[in-house]
Amino acid sequence: MSAESVTNAGPVGAEPRNYLNESYGVRSWLLTTDHKRIALLYMVSLTLMFVIGGLMAVLMRLELLTPQGDLFTSDTYNKLFTLHGVIMVWFFLIPSIPAVLGNFFVPLMIGAKDLAFPRLNLLSWYIYVFGALFTFYVVVSGGVDTGWTFYTPFSTDASQTHVVSTTLGIFILGFSSILTGLNFIVTIHRMRAPGLTWFRLPLFIWSIYATSIILVLATPVLAAVLMLVTIERLFHIGIFDPTMGGDPLLYQHLFWFYSHPAVYIMILPGMGVVSELVTCYSRKRIFGYNFVCYATLGIAFLGFLVWGHHMFVAGISVYAAMTFSILSYLVAIPSAIKVFNWTATLYKGSISFKTPMLYALGFIGLFTVGGLTGLFLAALGLDIHVHDTYFVIAHFHYIMVGGMVMAYFGGLHFWWPKMTGRMYPEGWGKLAALVVFIGFNLTFFPQFILGYLGMPRRYHAYAPEFQVLNVMSTAGASILGVGYLLPLIYLLWSLRYGKRAGPNPWLATGLEWTTPSPPPKENFEVTPAVNEEPYNYSEFLPKVFAAEEVEVG
Amino acid sequence: MAESGAVLNRAVLETQFADLEQQRETATFGMWVFLATELLLFGALFLAYTVYRYGAPEGFADASQHMEKVIGAVNTAVLLSSSFMVATAVRGAQVGGRKRLLFGLALTIVLGVVFLFFKGYEYYLHYEDHKVPGLNFEYAGQYAQAAKLFFFFYFAMTGLHAVHMLIGLGLVSVMLVRSWRGVFTEEYHAPVEVVGLYWHFVDLVWIFLFPVFYLIVKHH
Question: Is residue A504 part of a domain?
């Protein structure tokens, strides 16, 4: 305890120079090329989008409290779930961990002064904001009702809503994704500190690397197909219209060629965060480091080959469906490797249940449920039964919310002291993590049952026998809402009143913990050199304690 | 403004790099990654084209007879020559040959403009011929539907290519200004290489566009 308190002691007296007090004023933020400040710009914008997307979810859950459609018309409800999907997928989840935590910590974890292309990094944020403005316009001007998937021919011919503005917004946002991914790939290749070989990289870096490859290779296909939809809607050439020689299925192929890999954009970074958390709070080197690296790349690679499993009932051939089904099962292998390695890391570890660790453990459980139900959906026969039901909704929310959002919150708490120089209040943190976990499960577990019983997705009214489970789900959603509100409040509170954080409050390994909290503008006083494997806790901790005993004694 | 002026006038070692060598390799690598993105962007359109051509091979072949083959062939030659000029300029930058650098870049711009001029003229001929889907498309015979898709992809893909040409011309012009001011040296010439890579890529896309639209042989 005494040793820990020494390392935890924050700086006393005037704050030393750091990236936050380096310069002041709006200009110094809006024109910054510092990756740490850009990460905070992203954090603020993403939080705003998360709140808007979350409010739409609240309205939907309120409507679904009763079987009749009493709050909204079916048209309004269609717009709510469409905008909820568009905002949460493209404007929150895809940028979430990469653009906030990745931006902040990729250079810090590899011992670099900044990303390879700092101005491009700032440009990516402006492109993000520009794309978001289109979405704001859609929200205030009457919405869009196609679902986040923009399936043709509904999106091109039938829908009377603002499809073009929405697709243009996403098209623009795509460039932000691509440029961010490009920046990360190049940075990880070219900017590593001396001695930091590929297999000495933290697993978070590996996951950001794999994510970036997907961003760079999949997003342009989305850009192309959204352009086609936009042109078709404006000029009615017949690109996706079978009566004019077009093929509506081609739309689905191209869309899911992006959007299935995009699912892995929305989980791989979370896995990277969890790898960091599990090993730190178990005080143990991660089990099977190399396997986790290969599993990360494996998921990114296989992710490109499974898009057809979204189209089992769309009329693709049986052979194509079987192939996609088998390939989808293969994804379970690298995913399971990760889950097993995390649990094996816990085994005989010296575990401490700090807030980030609670999120990490929650992630492991919820991701496992989400992943296993994904196998249900990859099975050809069962998929026909549960296709387009709440089973699917529950499945992907377990991955995206139970997985990615939990990991985002875990990572945010873990690195909060480094980002802000302040500790968050641990008691409130644990409480919020618990509330989120309970609220999440109460919201989404009933939806598995609802879907299995046959309640279809995307309707504002439903059969009365589904009401009990829907009431449970809505109750859960309100608990979940409280769970998300708590961190918003106490994290802001901690900026002013939180305990000062030292350079390494968790006694964690990794270069980001060797520099002051918050770090100086150029990240490190001297460029660090690395000469050992990552997560070497068995050697790192005795060294720390020995050094402190000398100091204290 | 002050900063961009500085970039135009002299070699800059950005603070995040240790030396110019690292900066050069990073910039080049960045462009390669960007080209991977571009490949998938055009790739999606090539795929869509292939699907529809596979679905209506006769229709696509029939529509292809309306293409301006001579202009297309001349433009192919023009663009290949421009790539040669870019290669000359890059080599000039590498060995510090100022004349070669300026000459190569200037001719690249000339050839690029010639290409776009021919392309525009070709679009005009198609417009006169009522072959622009969404604007004034008319097509006699049984293949009207497939021909409309053919011409849509023709305009979409060559149009996207032309946009890339315009961006390329802008980039090469900036390089020309910077070369004129003597920014590039044997040690610092990464921007020229990066722009060169981009130009070659855009050229390469045309090498695929030309046969898939102009050279479909119609069997009777």
Answer: yes
Q: Does A13 map to a domain?
A: no
| pLDDT attached to residue A543 | 85
List pLDDT tens digits, range A55-95.
999 999 999 999 999 999 999 999 999 999 999 999 999 99
**What CATH number is attached to the domain comprising A204?**
1.20.210.10
Task: Please check whether residue A54 lies inside any domain of the structure.
Answer: yes
pLDDT tens profile A169-210: 999 999 999 999 999 999 999 999 999 999 999 999 999 999
> CB–CB of A275/A204 below 8 Å?
yes
Q: Mutate one of B13, B33, B54, B139 to test the A interface: name it (highest A CB count within 10 A).
A: B33
Taken as a whole, chain A contains a residue count of 553
* The overall pTM is greater than 0.80: yes
Distance CA B109, CA B169 (A): 6
Which residues from B are below 8 Å from A189, CB to CB?
29
Which residues numbered 285-314 in A keep a CB inside 8 Å of some CB on B?
none
Rounded (5°) CA angle A354-A105-A496 = 60
Interchain CB distance below 8 Å, B30 and A191? no
Cα separation, A525 vs A527, in Å, equals: 7
Q: What is the ipTM of this complex?
A: 0.93
Q: How many domains does chain A have?
A: 1
Interface contact A182-B156, CB threshold 8 A: no
